[in-house]
Amino acid sequence: MNTTGMEFAHIKELIKDKIQHTYLDKYIKKPIIDEEKLFVLLSVMNHTTLTESKKRDYIITTMLVQIALDTHDLVVKTSNSDEGKQQKQEKQLTVLAGDYYSGLYYALLAEAGDFDMIHVLASAIKEINEYKMKLYYLEAESLEVFLQIVRKVESLLFVHTAKFVKEVAVKNLIEEWLLVNRLIHEKQQFYVKGYSPLLDIWSHQNDSEGYAALIKNVDSIINKLLGTIEKSAMELPDYYRDLKMHIINRINGDPTMDTIHVEEG
Amino acid sequence: MKIAKTYGYLKKDLDCIEVALSNVIQAEHPVLRNAATQLLKAGGKRIRPVFVLLSGQFGNYDLERMKTVAVSLELIHMATLVHDDVIDDAELRRGKPTIRQLYDNRVAMYAGDYILARSLESITMLRKPKAHHVLSKTIVEVCIGEIEQIKDKYDWNQHLRDYLRRIKRKTALLIATSCKLGAIAADVPEALADKLYKYGYYIGMSYQIIDDIFDFTASASELGKPVGNDLLQGNITLPVLLAMKDREFCRLLKNAFSNPDILSETHMHDLLAKLKETDAIQCSYELSDHYLEKALKIVEQLPNNKAKHMLKDIAKYIGKRRS
């Protein structure tokens, strides 16, 4: 992945350094840094006139929040009474790791005296948790509405950050791109593990259709979205060249983006 | 820490804080809203708001600003409790079902994250860099303290300093921070704000030591959990550390915990009885008193006002806590 200005690999290393914790790393899985989200954020920040240190702080803290939220999603829904010592410790450390990453975001921005950005990210966390509750209790009358909620959960943090740095033109593209990436990821999960945590929420309540029909439905939504995204990416202003090229290359060159390919595989 | 005098003195302002707390946690999602409201209604001693208000009275006391700080600190404490209950698989808190028990772990995680986010949203209304430095460092330290607590479980070779560092992070820092933030919000001069911070730190240390003593001396009904629950969970607190100087207790302890999964009630009964035969409880109270004396010495250096007397009363009240 290439971007002008700040380098992708460098910023990813900075995030890795930030979340490094000897004890946590030994007993729980290292958090995944979502590269698509990082790339979008980097593209947005590189276009702004903010100082390099501000850009860096905003990228690292937004990603820290994402990592914290993702980490808490890994906490088991219910604790089994026959939970072993190792399982219990893993659960406990997963809770604390998420809290720790959240604390780091606040500490970094507090150090910079950036109260407004602390507020922006806190508001995003608040809203995302409201949407997560809607997802959890499946408050959607149709698949479209369900996916609208997923879209919010996936993109709210990045849309809030983009709005804060006055980059509003890419809002829809960010939302659609992050949604489509999540759907493709979930579909891959289904093919590899036979189970998609996200799609399972929907299929559980609507099992009359069956999983095969759901995947077919999701495929058609992905295809539709990719068409819209490609069109929007082509229309992006020149200063978003990196993001435009990245999206178009992935849509046309990445086999995971090809829904038919995945289906046949 | 219900001292009628202190609460009476601050009642009006504490009532305002209670209303503000309730308003802040009105989430849109009904389950999220109910979960947070139930947690709030379960009560609590509100000691952090009390310290914020009392510290603020050494400067330009503005209720709106004090309220912002007090609400934020209480919310941080609440968020920590919700996640702690997931960590401990706790079914009850203050005699009421925990959020994870009423709903499940996932809802508790979302509720905790939501409450913490509301707290940070609220505290950004206070535009004082120093306050945010102190608070953010404390939040990170509290997390590190909890991780250390898990790391130190069943480690019989740990030292007194490990225990003291743990309780500093677990309890004392947030109380010290409550004092300091109240002071900062009221533009109290830095040297005085630092004294209030130290007072809060010593009080917090003393308070946690006494709580750790109660784990062995109070009844199960008073505690709302089994007697010796900390030890059952593998947490080595001061009374145990001190009792381990006794060879027989040490032998019983290591024997009982050779396989914690099959720890019997008889094992625990024998252990608790033996612990009480040692001077561990007495020595633990002495260390708690040592911190209280330090807190009282700080109080003597504070300007003379009503808040000073209240801080003194609180310290004395903590010293008298016995079960």
TrEMBL record, chain A:
Domain of life of the source: Bacteria
Matching InterPro entries: HEPPP_synth_su1
GO BP annotation list: menaquinone biosynthetic process
Gene3D superfamilies the UniProt entry points to: 1.20.120.1450
Protein name: Heptaprenyl diphosphate synthase component 1
Lineage, uppermost ranks: Bacteria, Bacillati, Bacillota, Bacilli, Bacillales
Gene name, Swiss-Prot/TrEMBL: hepS
UniProtKB/TrEMBL annotation, chain B:
Enzyme class: transferase
Listed cofactors: Mg(2+)
Gene Ontology MF terms: heptaprenyl diphosphate synthase activity; metal ion binding
Keyword terms, alphabetized: Magnesium, Metal-binding, Transferase
GO annotation, biological process: isoprenoid biosynthetic process
Leader peptide range in chain numbering: none
Pfam family, one: polyprenyl_synt
Similarity comment: Belongs to the FPP/GGPP synthase family.
PANTHER family: ALL TRANS-POLYPRENYL-DIPHOSPHATE SYNTHASE PDSS1, GERANYLGERANYL PYROPHOSPHATE SYNTHASE
NCBIfam families recorded: GerC3_HepT (TIGR02748)
Name the UniProt record assigns to this protein: Heptaprenyl diphosphate synthase component 2
Organism of origin: Lentibacillus populi
Gene: hepT
